[in-house]
Amino acid sequence: MEDRKIPNYYIGKNYKYEARKVISDWELTYNVGNAVTYLLRANFKHHSPDECIKKAIHHLQFELDEIEQKKKKKIRINHI
What we know:
Low-confidence stretches: none
Distance between the termini: 30 Å
């Protein structure tokens, strides 16, 4: 597999953590992981963080919707 260049806005400034590795290590769900990624890059990818913050909020709402559906079906919720 070839090495791919990870954009700087996905890598922490001081400790050089990659967003995808943090998400994987914490075993976050798809929606929560995406929200975290959008928030981590919010101040670095665009001129204004608004777009990334709005996307994060949407993914968190999707996650809440899924949690509510699981509650209705009485499915155990393991990880966020």
